[in-house]
Design goal:
The structure holds 2 protein chains of 2 kinds. Chain A is 42% helix and 16% strand. Chain A has helices at 16-29, 46-49, 60-64, 70-73, 99-112, 126-133, 146-159, 164-167, 183-188, 194-201, 213-221, 225-228, 233-245, 261-266, and strands spanning 3-8, 34-38, 75-76, 83-86, 115-119, 137-142, 173-181, 205-210. The longest helix of chain A is centred in the first third of the chain and has 14 residues, at 16-29. Chain A is of the alpha/beta class. Chain A is globular. By secondary structure, chain B is α+β, with helices and mostly antiparallel strands. Chain B has a 3-stranded antiparallel sheet, with helices on one face. The chains are: A alpha/beta, B alpha+beta. The interface between A and B is medium-sized, with 16 and 14 residues.
């Protein structure tokens, strides 16, 4: 059965789009039929991160309004044949997205794909609520920084009240994805530790993505992190996160590139 | 000097953690609190509506959370002709 997963955070700039592309690519590498959907109408970026910006013809709004068929708007990834992108509109107003239209498209996507990953816009307004409404599973992307943790707490509250599942009295499966984590700074006491954030937000941990120059390199190239350099620390972290998402039990660690003593000491120490 | 300040300086993460815990305890509380008030208001309105017509604005529910004592204030203003009783105001404190 198809699974709808929303990648959300409340706060902007914490790595939602990077994580959507990376999780989508790693799921496709695991053999799943995947579509990543950009809900950030007016400020689309998933196409850029996926390296498909010059292949966008139709978008989500064209499909919800019946101006294009779903098959016309879907962009198949050139590296992974079971990975697809449904881009957002760059020119239209965000109000052009209707809940009825989104419901119809999500229904169609559920018939075609095993995993539907929705990249939420920042904020807690209508756009973010439309992106999460149909979700079965949520990945809450959080940086080890107070404003990000606070906003994640708000988003968790919305996932428990403003989703289709919540309205039916069911629960959305929520997971925490900690991004831009630096185990050395956390060990030094200058960054919130994994266990602090887990205690505050009290949702299960899906993975810890280390702060790494490889993330910017991947976005420069227009390649999802696991495809840009599969051996890099963040690529391994995303791949581990996807294995956990698929039900495998993978020991929690922060993959590291550090060769120094500090890295050896703290690189694998987590909650 | 720089070596000294390296060892002397205080870790900042515990401060962040404490600030967050205090803030979120407050924010989560106020969320459920306003929900409770809304639910109370609806249920009180429903009970009164069984017996008489009443203006929604005439039922005011207020919840004040203090450190020592919390008060729940329910203020219902009844229309003069609605009941056989004389017009009255009821204020309950809990």
């Amino acid at each position: 059965m198809a699974k709808v997963l929303v990648v959300t955070s409340g706060k902007g700039g914490v790595g939602k789009t990077t994580s959507t592309a990376a999780l989508g690519a790693a799921l496709a590498q695991a053999g799943k039929k995947v579509v990543v959907v950009d809900f950030d109408v007016g400020l689309r970026n998933l196409d850029l991160i996926m390296g498909a910006e010059r292949r966008v013809v139709y978008d989500l709004i064209n499909v919800t309004q019946g101006d294009a068929k779903l098959a016309q708007a879907l962009i198949r990834d050139k590296r992974l044949e079971n990975l697809h992108l449904l881009p957002a509109s760059q020119t239209r107003d965000k109000d052009a997205l209707t809940s009825e239209g989104v419901a119809r498209v999500m229904g169609e996507l559920r018939e075609r794909f095993e995993w539907i990953l929705c990249d939420s816009p920042a904020g807690i307004e209508r756009g973010a609520q439309l992106a999460m409404y149909h979700a079965d599973t949520a990945v809450v992307v959080t940086n080890p920084e107070i404003s990000s943790v606070r906003d994640s707490d708000r988003i968790i509250g919305l996932l428990d009240s403003k989703t289709e599942r919540a309205e039916r009295g069911e629960r959305v499966d929520k997971h925490l994805l900690l991004t831009r984590y630096d185990p050395v700074r956390a060990a030094r006491g200058d960054m919130l530790k994994t266990e602090d954030i887990l205690e505050i937000l009290s949702i299960p941990l899906l993975g810890i993505i280390p702060e790494s120059p490889d993330v910017l390199k991947a976005s420069n190239l227009g390649a999802p992190v696991p495809l840009a350099d599969p051996t890099s620390a963040p690529a391994r972290a995303y791949t581990d996160a996807v294995r956990r998402l698929l039900g495998e039990s993978v020991e929690m660690s922060v993959p590291s590139d550090r060769k120094g003593l500090f890295g050896k000491l703290f690189g694998r120490r987590v909650a | 000097m720089s070596l000294f300040s390296f060892f002397a300086r205080r870790a900042t993460a515990p401060v962040a953690r404490e600030r967050l815990q205090i803030l979120l305890a407050h924010e989560r509380g106020s969320g459920s609190q306003s929900q409770l008030v809304a639910v109370l208001q609806e249920e009180i309105l429903a009970v009164i509506a069984k017996h008489m017509q009443i203006d929604r604005d005439k039922v005011v529910v207020k919840l004040d959370r203090g450190t020592e004592v919390s008060t729940l204030e329910i203020d219902i203003e009844m229309p003069a002709q609605a009941a056989s009783l004389a017009p009255m105001r009821t204020a309950a404190r809990a």
